[in-house]
Design a protein that fits this description.
A: 12 strands, 32% helix, globular, B: 303 residues, 13 helices, 73% helix, 0% strand
Chain lengths: 333, 303
Amino acid sequence: MNEKQLLSVDGLSVTFSRRGRDPVEAVSEVSFTIAEGEHVGIVGESGSGKSVTAMALMGLLPERGTTVEGSATYREQDLLSMSRRQLNQIRGSEIAMVFQDPMSSLNPVVTIGTQISEVIRRHHRVSSKEAANRSAEMLDRVGIPDPRRRLREYPHQLSGGIRQRVLIAIALACEPRLLIADEPTTALDVTIQAQILNELKELVADTGTSLIMITHDLGVIAGLCDRVHVMYSGRIVESARRYQLFTTPRHPYTGGLLQSVPRLDSPQDEPLRPIEGSPTDTIPWTDGCAFQPRCPHAIDQCLEATPHLEPYEDRMLRCFNPLKGDEDDKRDR
Amino acid sequence: MTEGTINGPRARAQRSHGDSLWRGAFRRLSRSPMAIAGALIVVVFLIVATFAPVLAPYEPASTEWTQLSTPYWVQGHGPGHPLGIDRWGSDMLTQLIFGARQSLIIGVVATAIGLLAGAALGTLAGAFGGWVDMIVMRIVDIMLSIPSLLLAISIAAILGKSSAALMIAIGVGQVPIFARLLRGSMLGQKNADYVLAADALGLRRRTIVMGHVLPNSLGPTIVQATLNLATAIIEVAALSYLGLGEGDPAVAEWGRMIVSAQDRFEIAPWLAFYPGICIAITALGFTLLGESLREALDPKQRR
């Protein structure tokens, strides 16, 4: 690949420890890279460690009781070992994040205009008038009508969709190189979801911004990402290019995720098959494969040894007994 | 295409410019009879206190010895003196009006002292947390352990009997209330999503605390200030009653009016009754207003 590497995460592990309790390894051995302009998806159920991964990269985890290991090299600097001061030079201006809940991620007592210009003025030396102009421009770009008026309004006066657009505008205000979107559409109506995703896609494509899309919804990934990492219980279980992942899932968990989503091209009477059990039915990775209790494909080996993320065909896979590529999976070619 | 155009002009009219939380609270306040009653009392009190020299029929310190040719308890209410005169021949109504002014000044300054010092300490503790928080809150605990009456007596002993001593004594007594309240609400806001979002945008810690956490934490503190104004006015009266207030006898003060009336209570009870009712009504007014403000700003009631 001749693309320039923007961020390379290597062996990221996050452990939460609390007095009187066993430490919990929320994320472990997560490694991936993202090239400039590339869009990467991280998929998994709640509790799979995808949000913690993002928070660790942004330095947003509480310092107390959290151990972060590994490295995240962003343009030759390690994000994980930076001081708050250094990190603040990068956060907001070069790497920005869009959060899940647009209802609570905006300050309720400050106008939209102030919240956007604040970020612009933090990272660029511009007059307040210039910042206001740029804020209006940003609102316009994310598709908010009458941006000048919106600038003077408070978050509670806006609908959820508009608020999420505002959050996207704030995140993109300083033209970051990398945008991390943590389930940006989960809190929205389905109709708005599609709109926002399309707009987000256009915006990042226009500006050449790299994107890490964190979601539990494979449908979100489908139209957006070049490469997908599937996480389960804190580890990446399958990494593949989008096309490979959707057509020939190899990890039983990925397969299960795909089967639990309705598709336009599947026969109408075919029932959706959810993955049995819940994410809490896991065993520690040290004792075998964490997905084993829920896995229809489990073999004896899954309880005896820990699977490693290894090259398998055209992807990386952590599984002893991968799914075989059958006609059913290739149907939608 | 977007919600703005779908909802059309009606929605636009409802969401007028600058419609802040405070304006929403004001709308709810104007619908509550309790708030209107409280506001009415407070407004009357404020007008009387502000325009005392214009409203009062006599000079505050004027005593008409000639009036005392007939004793005040015999004279009672009459033309020229609708509420009668006190034992020194001063007009009762004039005294009450100037007493309102005295209560307001001392009450407001005392509450301001408490609010500013308390808010500073609370912000310090809430913003930094950790050992700063611990030290500040222990200091506040120590302040809380000193009885306010004892404090007032000590301060009066140091500064002499004056309004300033009253203000400081009452103000210092309020510091712990504000400090604890603000610290508590700041700690509550600190983990809010928008603070995390601000952090992710690389904003300075100072900006986050002063621009985001503090404004969101002020609501309860402002409500408390209104309520404390009521307590302060009662305390002014109480401390003056005990003889710790203004030393100058020419300055009218509700608490002291009660003192001077009490030994003739059987003959002329109204002399104690009028200042007493003034204190009660004023305190009630601020309490009603404060309580309805608390309700109006309560996020659970917000829609």
